[in-house]
Amino acid sequence: MTRYWEDFTAGEVIELGSYTIGRAEMLAFAERYDPQPFHLDDAAAAAGPFGALAASGWLTAAVWMRLYAGNLLNHSASRGSAGIEELRWLRPVFPDVELRARLTVPETRPSERRPDRGTIFLFGELLDPNGQAVMTLRGRGLIGRRPT
Over the Cα atoms of the chain, what is R_g? Predict the structure, then answer.
């Protein structure tokens, strides 16, 4: 079933599933995209800001996006995004910790210029096993309206 703009409601909370970032994935991502010592080397990480090897924040954002796309966007009339207004990394993510993604829709708004779509405003969270947010973001999704 395809979810259209009309199917989203302000205040709705959508669980997007979970994902565990393994150590090998964490290291491979850091080596390629964020080669800071506290993402790559145990000794450097132990002396660094997190006290242990931690995932790149960009990897956590990619994990959230994967869960968002796989569990919502690919089953909707997605028309892309108007962007992310805010991205926050609140806590370090260590290897082999299961993370859970959640989306809250604070507001929906029909497009003023394109009657075939609307905007969902979104607040995304990536949560650790204790329910604490390790990452949050605020953005907008463009969703097609139901065909008449």
Answer: 17
Distance of CA 86 to the CA centre of its chain: 12
Q: Which CATH number covers residue 136?
A: 3.10.129.10
Q: Give the H/E segment covering residue 31.
A: helix 23-33
Alpha carbon of 90 to those of 1, 30, 61, 82, 137: distances in Å? 35, 18, 12, 24, 11
Give the C-alpha separation, 115 to 89, whole Å: 36
CB-based contacts of 135, cutoff 8 Å, min separation 6: 57, 60, 61, 64, 87, 88, 89, 90, 93, 124, 125, 126
The whole-angstrom separation of Cα 37 and Cα 44 is 6
Domain that holds residue 28: 5-144
Domain count, the chain: 1
**Dihedral in degrees, nearest 10, Cα atoms 67, 72, 75, 78:** -110
Query: Mean pLDDT, the chain, as a whole number?
Result: 97
pLDDT in tens, 114-128: 999 999 999 999 999
User: Are the C-beta atoms of residues 63 and 84 closer than 8 Å to each other?
Assistant: no
> According to the model, what pLDDT value does residue 66 have?
98
